[in-house]
Fold this protein.
Amino acid sequence: MGTAIYLLAFSVLLVGLYAVVAKKNVIKVIVGVCVLDYAVNLLLVLVGYRSGGKAPILTPGEPVADFAAGAVDPLPQAMVLTSIVIGLGVTALMIAMALRLYEKFGTFDLNDIRRLRG
Amino acid sequence: MSQSVESERPDRGGMTPIVQNTARIVASFAAVFGVYIAMTGHISPGGGFAGGVILAATGVLIVLAFGSRYTARIVSEPLCHAADAAGAMGFLVIALLGFVAGGFFVNFIARISPGEVGHLFSGGIIPWANLAILIKVGAALAGVFLALAAFRRVGIREEL
Amino acid sequence: MGIEYLILILIGFMLVSALIAVEARDLLSCVICVGAAGFALSVIDLLLGAPDLAITQVVVEIVALVLLIRMIVRRDDTSVQTPRDTLRTGLVLLAGGVMLAAAFFAMGHVVKGSMPPFGQPLLAAPAGAAVGPGVAADYLQRSAGETGAGNVVMAILLDYRGYDTLGEATVIFASIVGAYAILRSVARGRRKEEMPT
């Protein structure tokens, strides 16, 4: 079960990589980078999961030892939280570049853009 | 009741008056929700990043409903740039103030009085750092959406 | 164990939606499928015990969806016309298969002890376990007393690892400034030579 989950998450990463490498449309490349982002965040959070674990938020009045033994690993979550917002910033940057490409060449097709060369 | 805002369709236009009036009401609640999620980040899930993106989504709602030209009069780009820089500087100042208690980024308020878990004023520098991150991320993402929305469709294929 | 089946089904849904997004002919369907993948990821985060991530992922997904749809809707070129390149697609699929097999071996089926099994995080093992206490177990125990914050993820982000958060804020700042720089040269330079439409 664990192997199947990890392999499926890795397949999502491969789908994103395929879109970045083999697609000729700028929008498809942007979508591929977004899917790569999601897959990497998913894999990081999956590594930190504890079976039957709870979220790492301490309610007042809960004994600390039980909480530390039953909580999910908080360290990957902290790293992924900022990674999600950085992914949005990078998507905005790529969309700005794609808008400039469209404004200059009139098309989203990378083959035509390579032939025209501004 | 209120008329639709002056907006040039289709390039810079907003939407119909129904959408605009609903957006007026919803945006206020959404902004308060974003600030709430950021400020109680040390008690319940959320934090500065989630609150900042919710504030930016409120900005997106206003731009979609009223058009980018009308929104740029209220939430202009220099304001977004200034708020972005202010948030980043605030975060850095909080980090440097940690030298009071021994080093860079030391939680000096928690050394003095940690507070109880579950109160709003517990957690030391964490609520203040959440506030700085909220301003920074919200202004940055709202500003970049405004810049993207104001990008006019200039004539294509000019060099050909 | 029911949660793990649900996680498996949702990751499968995310995989199918990513495949449709990458292979669709119409750009609008492609973008909407990426939105579906993002929402599925948010529900997976909730099931994996990460509510902060679920909130952030939903809102980030909505803003990214609005950005992408706005870019596509007003342009003329909205469907993918080029014929499929079979050689390149075949090569990429072959490379993908090799990488998948390598990941399968890395799970510990051929080489022993490479990755911790699913459900037993490495750094959060308690003090008496065979692996030894990890950093995360320390954080879980100390954070309520030292920092006074209930949310351990926030305590890690802004107190124990606050320097990393400063670096992340710098990265966001750099990408946003890059987007401003790319978009500004149009508004300033072209304003004089803009053709009346």
User: Anything to note?
Assistant: Chain C has a mean pLDDT of 81. Chain C touches chain A through 93 residues (CB under 8 Å).
